[in-house]
Specification:
Subcellular location: Cytoplasm, Perinuclear region; Cytoplasmic vesicle, Autophagosome membrane; Endoplasmic reticulum membrane; Endoplasmic reticulum-Golgi intermediate compartment membrane
Structural class: alpha/beta
Distance between the termini: 67 Å
Helix content: 40-55%
Radius of gyration: 34 Å
Number of domains: 2
GO biological process, one term: positive regulation of type I interferon production
CATH architecture of the largest domain: 3-Layer(aba) Sandwich
Membrane topology: Multi-pass membrane protein
Strand order of the largest sheet: 2-5-6-1-7
CATH superfamily of the largest domain: Stimulator of interferon genes protein
Organism: Acanthochromis polyacanthus (spiny chromis)
Strand content: 5-15%
Shape: elongated
Number of strands: 7
Keywords: Endoplasmic reticulum, Membrane, Nucleotide-binding, Transmembrane, Transmembrane helix
Length: 413
């Protein structure tokens, strides 16, 4: 559990609504102070401020609209309807137009709070016209937090595309066949069941924070040794007949030198993220790369948790890049995750056998025979319990339904 808490501390959580709450509280306190100072002009001040704040973005939308109309109408919008696509894209949405209209209506009904009409119109147009200028120069542009929030909310990050590509183009195709591949591998290599625990029958996917991965795990840790590949899976894909997908089996040595076999590999999109950070034309530095790795991990985890094809067939392992001092950090991390799954997910103890008596049986009837207690209970097939199944089974009874209570007998009393 400690390992899971360490991973959760590194993964960024989705941004909440705290900025909206703070903005609403600040506006409420300011409006309350105006009500106290000059209650007779409160609606006028609020309407004037709202009109100025909405008129500025609308004028900036006109500047954007001129660019889109002249240079991008056919290429970006493919000649689609002007009102339904281009106007909302330039900022002429229903919310902004409605806010400006309501502010103008309130201002017309209650009047502006300034004593001179010339001062009002000068302030209105001066502020509204300077807004597009400051916006175009980037002075009023969105902050990095706003851009990040927009990209995460609309799934526009590089990490989102890589996570969906990794799932749709690889994991969803191979994970449904993983259990059969491991079973075939064990049959040909004559492994004992004790060496392949339930926790090691998943695909362990390594996601390093620095995105710098090695093509051979034994180069990272000499306690990890390549053993063999699982049987190939051939799938017709994108015009390629029999495209080959495979996994590698590694033997991970613990502190006692005992080997633990598992199927482990790095997440291949990490190669893309690392290569992008090495290309100056990609505009992708080390801080951005680390952020994208964390978003990739979070996005892929969310995708796999909702995937029926991949459920209980994988394990994502986030590797901290600050553990370079330990030469066996990778092997210890893999073994810790395997042991954790063995202990927390698959330690299922069968319930003890209980004597079952039919509710309609007479009290004088003999109870069902109990299994012999001579130590050879497992050798009696009639008393040998069926193995527990991991998949739900639908069972039908051919007997007629029985009443909950037994039949009432006639009595002389």
């Amino acid at each position: 559990m400690q390992n899971l808490r360490d991973q959760e501390a590194l993964i960024p959580q989705p941004r909440m609504n705290l900025p909206k709450v703070c903005a609403a509280a600040l506006a409420a306190m300011t409006t309350a102070s105006i009500v106290v100072l000059s209650p007779e002009r409160m609606f006028g001040w609020v309407a004037m401020a709202a009109l100025i704040l909405t008129l500025g973005p609308l004028l900036h939308g006109l500047c954007l609209l001129s660019e889109e109309m002249l240079h991008h109408y056919n290429t970006r919008y493919r000649g689609r309807a002007f009102l339904s696509h281009m106007l909302p894209a330039c900022g002429f949405g229903c919310k902004s137009l409605l806010a400006a209209g309501l502010a103008a209506l309130v201002l017309y009904l209650v009047g502006h709070p300034l004593p001179d009409n010339n001062q009002f119109w000068k302030l209105l147009f001066l502020v509204s016209v300077h807004y597009p200028l400051l916006k175009s120069l980037g002075i009023l542009g969105p902050s990095e937090v706003e851009v990040s929030d927009i990209c995460e909310g609309r799934k526009m990050n590089v990490a989102h595309g890589l996570a969906w590509s990794f799932y749709l183009g690889y994991l969803r195709l191979v994970l449904p066949y993983l259990e059969d591949s491991i079973a075939a591998f064990r049959a040909t290599h004559q492994y004992s069941s004790a060496r392949w625990g339930r926790g090691s029958r998943k695909l362990l996917i390594l996601v390093p924070l620095n995105a710098n991965i090695s093509h051979k795990l034994e180069d990272e840790d000499d306690n990890i040794r390549f053993y063999d590949n699982l049987p190939n899976n051939e799938i017709d894909r994108a015009g390629v007949r029999g495209r080959v997908y495979k996994h590698s089996v590694y033997r991970v040595l613990d502190e006692n030198g005992e080997g633990h076999e598992c199927v482990v590999e790095y997440a291949t999109p990490m190669l893309t993220l690392y290569s992008m950070s090495q290309e100056s034309s990609a505009g992708f530095g080390e801080p951005e790369r680390r952020q994208q790795v964390l978003l990739f991990y979070r996005t892929l985890q969310d995708i796999l948790e909702h995937s029926l094809e991949c459920r209980n067939r994988y394990k994502l392992i986030l590797l901290d890049d600050e553990q370079h001092d330990d030469p066996h950090y990778l092997s210890k991390t893999i073994l810790r995750h395997i042991e954790q799954q063995e202990r927390e997910e698959f330690c299922v103890t069968p319930p003890p056998l209980q004597e079952m008596v039919h509710p309609l049986s007479n009290s004088s009837s003999a109870p069902p025979s109990a299994p012999p207690m001579d130590g050879n209970w497992h050798h009696h097939p009639e008393h040998h319990p069926e193995p527990m199944s991991r998949e739900p089974t639908l069972m039908f009874s051919l007997e007629k339904p029985q009443p909950l209570k037994g039949p009432v007998e006639n009595s002389d009393y």
